[in-house]
Structure formats: C-alpha cells, structure tokens
Amino acid sequence: MQKKRIASMTAAAVMALSSAAAVIPASADTTVAAASAFETIEASTATIKFNANGGTIVGAKKKTYKKGKTLGVLPNAKKANVVFDGWYTKKTGGKRVTYKTKLAKCTNKTFYAHYKVIDQPHLKWKWENSYDGFQYPSNYVTPYERIRYIFDKNYADWLWETNGFKYMPWGGNCFGMSSTASFNALGLNNLKTFNKKATYTKDIGLKNKSTKLKLTAGEFCEAAQQIQFNWGIQKMYDEHENKYQAIANAAKRVQKKKAKPVVIGVLDRVYGGGHALLPYKFVKGSKSDKVYVYDCNYPNEKEHYVELYKNASGAYYDFRYADFHDSYTDITYFPTATIWKVWQNRGKKAAAGMTNEERQYYGVDSKTNATIYDANGNVYATIANGDVEGGDAVQLNVLADKWIGKKMPTIVFSLPAGEYTIKSNDGSVLSASVFYNGKSVEAEGSVLSAVKGTLAVAE
Question: How far is it, in rounded angstroms, from Cα 429 to Cα 421?
Fold first, then answer.
C-alpha cells in the first residue's frame, strides 16, 4: 500500500507541473508530452577555460570544444617550487581531465591546474657538502673533539691515534649530513637555532649554535660523521653490501612514508673512499629501476638516482651511481634506527659497538716489502715500499714521522672478510703489528694472521 501511495503522489506532481506548461489533448500520450515540455537543444560547441590556480598558464588560456569530440591538446601550467599535476574539474579535488576526455554535455566549463610537491625536501639539508659550504680550508682536519663527542675516551683515542685521524684532512661530512638529515625528517632532533632552509652552512653562520646540542652547524655534521666508525655500522658495510632488493624496498617504503629513511653508501673498492646518500623515491622501469637520492654534494639537484639493473627474470644484478665525477663499485645501506642508536649513546662506551677482540686490523712497517696471502695460500696483494697493490686492499697513507713517536706502518684495510697472512719477501722477520684497543702488539716471526676487523670510510 505504501508503494502505491508514493506512485500516486509522483504522478500528481508531474501532472501539475506539466499542465502549467501546455494544454494537452485527451488523446495525446501524456508521458511524451511532459518530457517534450522540458527538452532543450544542446549546443554543438562550448568554450573551455583554464585556471592556473595560483600558477601561470603555459599555452592557450581557453579553447573551443566540439560536441562528441575529445578535449585534445591542453596547455601546461607552472608554479614555483612545485610540479604541474594536470587539469581537474575543481580547484581542490574533483576529477582529472586529459586530452582523451569527452564531455558528457557540451557546455562551457573551467578546468583548474593542480600541483604536487616533490617528495625530496623532507629528507634533506640544503647545506652543500663542500669546503666552501663549510668555510673550511683545503687542509682542514676534523678535530679530536668531534670523535670524542661520539665515542668514549678509549675508543676515541684508538681512532685518533691508530687510524691517523690526527693527520687526515677533511674529506667531507656526507655520512654526517645524510644521517642527521634523516634524524630531522623524523623529528628526532630539536635543533632550535639551525636554519634548515639555508643553502650553505655559511648562510647559517658557524657561530650559530644549537642550544640543545651546543654545537655549530659544522660541528654537528662533523660529530655525526664519526658515527660510521661504530663497529656495528662497519659490519654493515660488508653484510649489506650489494643487497639491491633491500635498497629498492627501503626506497619504496620511504616514498610511501611507511618506514624510516636509510642511509645508502656507495663505495669505491678500487681507489678507496665512498659517499653517503639518502633515498626518497623509487621509479620502476623496463630494464632497470631508479632509486632517487638526496646527495649533499648537490643539495638542490633532483635528478640524482641509483640505477638498479635487472635481468630477464626481473632480479637485480648490478647498479650504477655517477655523481658527475665518480663511479662506484659497490653499494650498501644503514638503517636510521641503527645510526640513531649510536647517536643516543654518544660519549659512552656503548657507542663504539665493539669488543676488544673485534677491535683489530693489521699493518706492516712502511719500509718492508711483503706479500699478503688469503686463507687458501693464494697471493691476494703485495706491499712494495709501503704501497699496497692488488685485491680490494686499500692503504691509509699517513706521514711516517708523525706516527706517535715511531715508524708509521702501512695500514691495510677494507679487506673482504676472512683470514690473511703477511710474509716478508726476503724471509726476514716481519715488523708487523695487530692493533687492539689503541695498543700495538708485535707479531712473532715473519708470519702474521689476522681476521678482518677493519674500517671503511664514506667521505
């Protein structure tokens, strides 16, 4: 009964509205007559206007649309610090229209430009990692105080003396800049006085200290740079090396803001050194995928990426990252959570993250000619007049006459995991040492064996 009453009311309403429009003969079809009373003729053309929505139109600001056709060529729009993201039916929200769109009705319309922000800025400092950016002279040496800021005195002394940091010139703060940028993106550090928008640290003023950390901008990055010498971070250099899929997955999660950033390290195993980067976007391709990164050497450059090459099955097998002057042989990564843990433990013994047994690497007197053999007895590398050649061995060159009052050994580091034996070429007693906790322990005889316990550096 309820349905019939509703139907009767609807019919009555139509009849009343229709009767006001025309006199209808009794024999006519009242339904058709009612419809024809409201019928309008749709235009064959319409004017389409484009609203830049706070930006600027690049191209025609309006065009003529023909009924039943697609929109065809559309103009572009631009706006400072954002990227044009297409035309929409409303200023905010609405539906996107493209050159393929057909209008449901041929009527005059206005479409609005939408924009999107590149997802990079939330990860980066705009400071440039250069001598100019930090106002450093070319012979600047990161002071002992920065190492001591992160590590307890014993470990800081070991790094400072045994590794020759005292005489190593500044090579950049890339690890410090990348790691602290990830801290800031997560809101972990309340810096208070540092200006994140500054392009160079000189724009901030190196006298402008963080009231929380009591460090200038340069000192802050210098201190964080030392985090990579935590033993757990050092192990990651090897354990995470060339784990391409893990790096791709990390970039995807960061892009979706579902995970904390990771720091990527690209390494040069031939000539030594490396560089630290922050991934923020993943783009899939046919033969390779791209992981876009923030590179503190080029803080405003948005087209820097690590390219991951894929085989026929879609698995990654190699990578490439070229930053206009260097190419790298290996790639690794470090979770922000791990780096942050070292930062939280700064100044404490726990920040070192290693035991005395792990705290080892080895060297020979710089005047000794020797051969390094791997565990299978094969020649891995040679040392001639203090220079290391062959394998992945890299030497740390430090002035011999500055070596804590004694002869400076050639330090062999960045060796693959394993055990090695060093023999003097003339069969004489080899002047070799293993360093534990800042102390030198002389080897017995002409053979020295040591398990990997060495340091890699991202400059």
Answer: 14
The Cα 234–Cα 456 span in angstroms is 7
User: What letter represents residue 324's amino acid?
Assistant: F
Radius of gyration (Cα) for the chain, nearest Å? 34
Question: Residues 384, 393: contact at Cβ < 8 Å?
Answer: no
The span from the CA of 36 to the CA of 40, in Å, is 9
pLDDT digit string (tens) for 334-354? Answer: 998 899 999 999 998 889 875
- Interval 220-255: pLDDT, tens: 999 999 999 887 888 788 789 899 999 999 899 888
Mean per-residue pLDDT for 43-65?
A: 92
C-alpha 97: how far from its chain's center?
A: 34
Rounded Cα distance, 96 and 132, in Å? 46
> What distance in Å separates the CA atoms of residue 414 and residue 234, rounded to the nearest whole number?
10
User: What's the rounded Cα separation, in Å, for the pair 191 and 174?
Assistant: 19
Residue with tokens 């023909």: 66
Reported confidence tier of residue 308, pLDDT bands at 50, 70, 90: very high
Q: Note the pLDDT of residue 137.
A: 83
pLDDT at 84 over 70: yes
Of all residues in the chain, what percent carry a pLDDT higher than 70?
68
Whether 139 has a pLDDT exceeding 90, the answer reads no
Average pLDDT over residues 41-56: 91
Q: Of 254, 245, 310, 311, whose CA–CA distance to 277 is shortest?
A: 254
